[in-house]
Amino acid sequence: MTDLVIRALDASDAHLFDTLPDPLDAREGHRRTRHRPDWKRVALRDGTVVARAAWWGGPDDTEPVTVNWFDVAEGEEEAGAELLRTAPWQVELELNPPGTWREDPAVRAAAEARFTAARAAGYDLLVERFLYRWTPQCGLPERPGRLDFRPEPDDAVFFDALRRIHSVTLDAHALMDIAEGGLDKAAQSELDFFRWCPSPREWWQLAYTPRGELAGIHIPAHNPSGPCIGFIGVLPEHRGRGYAYDLLAECTHFLVERGAEFVSAATDRGNHPMAANFAKAGYPVVRERINFRPALAVR
């Protein structure tokens, strides 16, 4: 087998990225994603692309926050591993196969080849997630009307609520942050994400019961690809009453009232209560996301 050549791309040769087959339909999944040519890398053998990866970040980011497009040609898992291993950025890897990828043998084989390459590059599986996309055809979820929603200008109030919410959580990223830096890190990571989103700070909302008790928070947001459910969280002492659905319904209405023609969202596959709320609110699963983390990375 001939030697492997790994190189970065630029605007003049970015077309090389498009020469591999796309069995996971990544192009469709990224139709709203803007990838920078200089954050794309390919592995070539005899001048033919046998692996590719695209790193991504927001428009103001100076370094990528994730690699969200990764492909290997058949039998070239080691080339894909070398492509990831030698990259200047060791950040989380996202693979976003169609929601039915487990049922299609060819698509499943393609996905598993990429998993193999990621693990060979030193990446560990972090979590599998559902990706949702609400559109007007889904119908607006009914607002139960049980909670009072208010903006709150003080970040410290949200920080305290996030600490309480994450004190009992099923979210894999929050659990990772807690393991590394406690509840403060988990809460701060959420606040940093909310601030990173280009949507207004004034959109963040607290939810109160009729008795005036803080029950949870919801963050309607826009990420660089469009409107999304930024965060839904119920305080532990108010769980078991279905309030997550109330928060999700309000968040959806909030975005639609401000012109959203679709709303994206995600939750961990293992977070069965939240997945049930998305289903109840009429959010269909459109893709899945498998998150891998570099074994030695520090977030």
UniProtKB/TrEMBL annotation:
Q: Which residues form a coiled coil?
A: none
The record ties this protein, via InterPro entries, to:
Acyl_CoA_acyltransferase, GNAT_dom
- The source's domain of life comes to Bacteria
Under Gene3D superfamilies, the record lists: 3.40.630.30
Q: Name one Pfam family in it.
A: Acetyltransf_1
Question: In this protein, which residues make up the domain named N-acetyltransferase?
Answer: 163-299
- This one is known as GNAT family N-acetyltransferase
